[in-house]
Every structure is written in C-alpha cells, then in structure tokens.
Amino acid sequence: MARHDPHVIDREIDIIAAQLAVLQRREDDFTRILTDMTRLQESVQAEKAMLNSRVAQLQSQKIPVNWLPAELLIQIFLVFVAEETTTRLPYNPAPVVISHICRKWRQLALTTSQLWSFISYRSSAVKLPPVQTFIDRSGGAEITFSFVSSLDGVVQNALAVTESNTSEGLIQVLEPHFSRIRSITFECRFAASMLPVISALCNRKFPKLRYLDLALCSQSLSVTRPTSLPTNDVPNENETRTDGILTDLRLQQVPPARLPSYLLRNVRVLELSYLPRRTAAARPGLFIQSMSEMTQLLHHTPQLHELTIIGVTLSWDITRTDLQAVRLLEDNIPVNVVEIPSLRCLHWKYAHPKDIYPFLSLLVLPRLERLDLLIGQPPTKRYGASHLRGNHIHNQDSVTQTEPFLSVVTLNALKELNISCHSEDTLASSLRQLLFPSLGKLDITFVGQHSCKEPGLPALSRLESIFRDPRLPLLTHLSLSYFDILPGHGKATLAYMPCMISLTLGGCTGVDGVLNALAESYGSVPSGRDSSPPRTCGVRICPRLEELVLWSCNDFHFESLFSVVHARSGEADVSPPDVGVVGVDVASAVLGRKIRPLKKRRKAGDNAVHVVDLGSHTASGTMSTLIPIEEALHPTGITCIHLEDCPPISEDQVLSLEELGAVVTLR
User: Fold this and answer.
1) Is 187 helix (H, G, I), strand (E, B) or coil?
2) How far, in Å, CA of 87 to CA of 378, rounded?
3) What's the predicted TM-score (pTM) here?
4) How far is the C-alpha of 665 from the C-alpha of 667, rounded, in Å?
5) Chain mean position to CA 538
6) Structure confidence at residue 161 as a pLDDT band (50, 70, 90)
7) Are 268 and 305 a contacting pair, CB within 8 Å?
8) How far, in Å, CA of 73 to CA of 64, rounded?
9) How far is the C-alpha of 353 from the C-alpha of 363, rounded, in Å?
10) Which residues pair with 64 in a beta bridge?
11) Alpha-carbon distance 159 to 166, whole Å?
C-alpha cells in the first residue's frame, strides 16, 4: 500500500473542515428558523385557545342557568348542599361535585366558605381527612355537622369499638371549632359512642348551637347495657353560664337529664322518641321515662312551643298531691304543676289511655292550640312494672295509693284535636276527663285492627261516651276515618255541632245514614195554595255545612247525596207569603208542637226577626248548641263536594249537583 504525503492529508482535512463549517452554519440557520416557527406555532395555539374559550363563553351564555348572578348561584348551591343526604360516601360530596362542573363554579365553590360548612360523616370507620378538609375550607362559617353510623346486620363488640373510636376522633377534630357549630346530628347504635358528645355538651361551650339531634338507633338491649347513659351525672355548673340559643332539640332513646340546663332554657321544639318495640322482650327500663324527670325537663324549657312524645313509657313516681316533695336539682324550688305558657302544639304518639289525663293534669297549658294523639293498644302484661301506667287511687296496679287527680282538665285555648286509636275501646276511655270548650277542628281515625271477630270496621262510639261534654258549639271541621257509623249515631253526633262547615268521611261504612240525617228537614209547611202539597222546610242539623268530602266510602247512594245538596240549596228555601199564618206553621213544624200566635205588636216591630246568639252562655256556663230558627230555615248551600274512590256517578248526576251550586271534584 502506498504511503500518502502528510501535506496531502492536511489539505484534505482542511477541505472537510470547511465543508463541516458550512453545514454547521446551515444547521444553525435551520435551528433559528425552527425556533421562530415554534414560537409562531405557540402564538397561534394560544390565540386559538383564547378564541375557543371566547366561543365557549358565548355558547354558555345561551344556557339560562348562566344568566344568574354569582350571588344567586351561591344560594342555590347552599340549598343543594344542605339537602344532599342520599349518597353512600362517608362525606357529603355535593361541594366537590359542584367544584367539578366548570371553572366558574369551581371558583365560586372554593371561595364560598359556607358551602363547605355542611359536614357529614356516614361511616363507622375512622377516615378523618375529608372532615378536616371541609373544616379548613369552611373558614369562619357556622358549621352544620352530621354523623350517621352505617353499621348494618348483627351487632358485634368489634363494631362497637370501631364506632366508639370514630366518635371520639370526630369530637377531637371538631373541638377547636365548637364555638362556631350551629347544628349537631349524631346517630349511632351504641351508648358508648354517644358519651363523647354528651361529655362535650356538658363541659364545653356551644354559643351558636341552635339544633341538636341525638339518637341511639339500635333496639338491642345488649347495645346499651354495658355502657348505659346514666341520668344522675349532672355536670358541674358552679361557674355562671349564659343561656344557650338552642331552639330545636330531638332525643331518641337518650335520657334528657344528661344535658345541661343552660342549653334547654330557650328550646322551642322538643321531641322525645323511642323506637317502636318489635317484641315484648324489649320492654325493660331502656324505654321508660320517669314522670319526675319529665317535669324537671319541662320546667327547664319555659319557651317551649312544640312538644313531641313518641313511644315514651311514663313511670309514675309522682302524683299531683305529692309533687310538692319533688325538688328540682338546681334551685331546690318545690313545684305544684309545670306551666308552659308558650306551648301551642302537643304531639303524642303511642300514648297509653291511662297516661293522657294524668300527664295533662300536671301541666298548665294556657295557649295550647293543637293536640295530636295516637292512642296505643294497652298491653295485656305489665312486665313486673306496676307503676308504669296511670296513677289512680282505684287502680290496683298503682304503686302509690294517693288521692286521685282533679276530676277535669280544661283546655280552653285548644282549637284542633287529632285522635288516632288502635282499639275502639280506648277511644271511649281516654278523653272522658278532658274538656275542649273552644274546639274548632276534630279528626278521629282508627288505625288498628278490629278486635271483634265479626268482619267489618269498628263501630263509632257515641260522642257522649268519648267526651265528658259532647257539645261542641264552635266546631267547624269534622273528619272521621275507618269507622262503622251505626244508624242514628251519625245524626246524634252531628247534632252537637251546629257551626260545622266541613265534613270529611274516609273509609267509613254507614255513610248513607249520615247523608240522610243531613238531608232531613224540620217538617213541612203549607205552600199557600189549596191545591199544592205541603213543602219541606229547612234542615235539622249542621245548617252551615258548605263542604262535603267522601273518600273510600262505598255504601252510599247518589240519591242520598243529592238530597243533602237539594235540601240546602236555594230551591228548598222557604219564603212564606203570609207571615201571620204560614210563619206560625213554620214554627210549629220546627219545634214539633202547636204554637199559638202572639198578639200583634206595634207596627215598627212586626217585621223584626229574633236570632239566637250561638255565643251566649247558659246559666251553667256552657255554650248552647241550639240552632237558631232563622239558620235552620235558611241553611247555607253546599258549595264543594270531593269524591275519591267512591261509587261512580254519571256526568248527568254531576251536572245535577252543579246546577244546585256545588262544585264537584272526582278522583
């Protein structure tokens, strides 16, 4: 191989280096061009994104929801967050969902602290980071906290420990923020899980707490017996505490004596409830509320407006005569009766018949306007607790043989009474010692099973056997449901209600007899012509009746309904042409005996009409239920008829009723 000259090699290297330099310059030019193109591309992309955003913004303006201002959107979000309770997640996902809709909504969600103040936890496992995140984002807003245990199935000790740990963890996370909590809902299955909440309420201050709902949701006695909630552990209140602003208090299977009294002084709505007992084995002391503790609780709630009692078994450890010996725990002031001047509504479900009168006799309720009673079925076995029901001197089961209560309790301000009973016997034994002089609305419903072996509905008792005084001169609305109205009982009942405006019969039998009683006239009067037959005049009962509601009533005929409307229409009105003759016959027909005409008086008094005032009192102090003759002869016409699930009527029959002035509604 020939050897190359070094000079030749150097010359060739210089030529290649020059070529590389040219290529490097060209590469640098291309790099600069690519950089400029990339910059131009990014500029185009940014401008394109801006234009797309503008297009999306313009498109969004077509949607009506985006026309709303931010302030109104926030209020809608707050309503949605407050009502979102259907999720299975351990926390309330509503604020998170809102923040994932669009950029605008996310900005509103993250800047609205109230949106994150609705903190809920629905898991028995300890998962506190979501709760802490909600607390941090809530800022300084008032907190609404809710804990609902998700334990299902058989109760086990391991689950009890898990729930208790979760409860303690939640209270520890919330402890620095007690001063801004406005609502607490705490539902658990074990008493041990409730103790941290009770301890915090007794030992810490909640200056903004307005709503409190504590519930033990388990029916198993083994859940609460190991660590029960004692009622004698009253918190130390040596220091002066201002009254709380708590207005709504609901306790389910939680002793009310556990709560400090300063929280109760402004309560307006109070609910005490126990779960319905499925078996007789669930009878023992877990479901018993002593009457002494009840009176103490009501004494500490002078601002109470609405009281609800559900499934509470009263233990009569006091009576009216020995109530002076019961002293309140704080101020040691003896009390005769408990006065609740602001109470307007009392709802009592599953009340024992013998508890109603003794309970009301221990209370002074000057403004009670509504009373709802669901009278339970009396148990056949008392389970060894002889002092549970009714405290009367003649009751062999009474543990204290003291003097009986006062004979009558008068509820002067009561306007509405709703009664539901499980047994036809309890209806006639529950209200005999109560008086309702101002009652305006009455609803009686049978919700149990007929105790008799014969098929059909229970017979409606006569009003004399239900009330001590059956006269209801101010009653305007009457509703009867699921009763058999015996022949004659309907007329006898309605005769005590001269001012009744609305009558509702639901699921009843014997309705045809009631309609015939409503259509019954006082009698007949001469028509003024020798050849014409006498005409019927007026009605005997309920001359002011305007509305008739019938649902699920299948034993009446259209003719009876038409007779009621016709008897009270203008066509049946009596306008005597000759007052001197026909007027006497009308009075005779009304009173059922021959009336002699009075001597003629002065001319100025010939046309005077005497009207009896329903508001006048008799010598005995009770109001009269006599119907004025003027109203009996000229009754108010039926204006509304509601028929639902009743025998069908034809269009012609409907038109015949509407021609008499009645508006008919069919369903």
Assistant:
1) strand
2) 40
3) 0.77
4) 7
5) 41
6) confident
7) yes
8) 12
9) 17
10) none
11) 11
